[in-house]
């Protein structure tokens, strides 16, 4: 990839925030915002696939979102199941592979089965990987990775001294995928809210005030343009060995 300029991030991660405020601004109930949020998901998936993004990771429900009122949680789960049922065939036809990351044990069995079926159906697709983070938390992710490593140590398969960053990374939910190049957070907040804590170490961060249901192709253009203007140093000093935002290690 050296020498070739490519203003497109390989991996985009998105914190889709602002559905509730979108609804409140229109005196609508929060579910109306989540409904329009699903439409915005469809738009960004199609757009990213068309542009040639390799991986798109969407934060759909966090470990902390379980603490919302029970009605909102069950509505979100129903909405998620409906969206999955409605969209999986189209995603498959579009050659998009669907993966899920998060603490699946927290989800109901019916939803888990549908997620597993969608992942299996689309497993061979090559155009783009769509990762949906549901019941996901960055701290959960690192904790479950630590637990897997501990299990292997206890089983005598791994020496404690052999644990290094690659080894831990291999146990994380996004193992095998490149780290996100660009993180987009809509909705005006400038925080990570326990998303991909490990994987975002050198990700370019883009925050915008647009509420998620209003996020469209022009907004995506603006985020990608911002990314194209970054010089990624990865801790080094500027010079010939430093990559532009469009080149990858
Ligand atoms: C994001 O929108 C969707 C989820 C977190 C599930 P919010 O529901 O957080 O919307 P706001 O932040 O209250 O506007
Ligand atoms: C982050 O949004 C989680 C998702 C978008 C799924 P939140 O609305 O939960 O984040 P906070 O509470 O404002 O930090
Ligand atoms: Mg929010």
Automatic annotation (TrEMBL):
Catalytic activity reported: 8 isopentenyl diphosphate + (2E,6E)-farnesyl diphosphate = di-trans,octa-cis-undecaprenyl diphosphate + 8 diphosphate
UniProt-annotated binding residues for Mg(2+): 17, 204
Gene Ontology terms: cellular component: cytosol
InterPro entries according to UniProt: UPP_synth-like, UPP_synth-like_CS, UPP_synth-like_sf
Free-text comment on the cofactor: Binds 2 magnesium ions per subunit.
Residue positions of the active site: 17, 65 (proton acceptor)
Entries under Gene3D superfamilies matching the protein: Decaprenyl diphosphate synthase-like
Top-level class of the enzyme under EC nomenclature: transferase
Cofactor(s) it depends on: Mg(2+)
UniProt-listed GO biological process terms: cell wall organization; peptidoglycan biosynthetic process; polyprenol biosynthetic process; regulation of cell shape
Binding residues annotated for substrate, in chain numbering: 18-22, 30, 34, 62-64, 66, 68, 185, 191-193
CDD domains, A to Z: Cis_IPPS
A GO MF term: magnesium ion binding
E.C. code: 2.5.1.31
PANTHER family in the record: DEHYDRODOLICHYL DIPHOSPHATE SYNTHASE 2, DEHYDRODOLICHYL DIPHOSPHATE SYNTHASE FAMILY MEMBER
Function of the molecule: Catalyzes the sequential condensation of isopentenyl diphosphate (IPP) with (2E,6E)-farnesyl diphosphate (E,E-FPP) to yield (2Z,6Z,10Z,14Z,18Z,22Z,26Z,30Z,34E,38E)-undecaprenyl diphosphate (di-trans,octa-cis-UPP). UPP is the precursor of glycosyl carrier lipid in the biosynthesis of bacterial cell wall polysaccharide components such as peptidoglycan and lipopolysaccharide.
Family from the record: Belongs to the UPP synthase family.
NCBIfam families: uppS
Subunit structure: Homodimer.
Full protein name: Ditrans,polycis-undecaprenyl-diphosphate synthase ((2E,6E)-farnesyl-diphosphate specific)
Gene designation: uppS
């Amino acid at each position: 990839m050296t020498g070739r300029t490519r203003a497109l991030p390989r991996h985009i991660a998105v914190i889709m925030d602002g559905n509730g405020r979108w609804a409140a601004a229109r005196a609508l109930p929060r579910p109306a915002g989540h409904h329009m949020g699903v439409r915005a998901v469809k738009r960004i998936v199609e757009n990213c696939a068309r542009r040639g993004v390799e991986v798109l990771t969407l934060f759909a429900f966090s470990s902390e979102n379980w603490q919302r009122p029970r009605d909102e949680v069950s509505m979100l789960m129903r909405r998620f199941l409906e969206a999955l049922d409605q969209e999986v065939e189209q995603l498959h036809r579009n050659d998009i592979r669907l993966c899920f990351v998060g603490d699946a044990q927290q989800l109901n069995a019916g939803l888990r089965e549908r997620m597993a079926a969608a992942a299996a159906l689309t497993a061979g697709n090559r155009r783009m990987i769509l990762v949906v983070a549901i019941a996901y938390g960055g701290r959960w992710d690192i904790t479950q990775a630590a637990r897997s490593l501990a299990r292997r140590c206890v089983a005598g398969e791994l020496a404690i001294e052999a644990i290094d960053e690659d080894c831990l990374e291999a146990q994380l939910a996004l193992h095998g995928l490149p780290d996100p190049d660009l993180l987009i957070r809509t909705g005006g907040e400038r925080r990570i809210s326990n998303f991909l804590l490990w994987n975002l170490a050198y990700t370019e961060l883009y925050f915008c005030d647009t509420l998620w249901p209003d996020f469209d192709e022009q907004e995506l253009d603006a985020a990608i343009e911002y990314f194209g203007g970054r010089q990624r140093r990865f801790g080094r000093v500027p010079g010939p060995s430093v990559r532009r935002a469009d080149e990858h290690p």
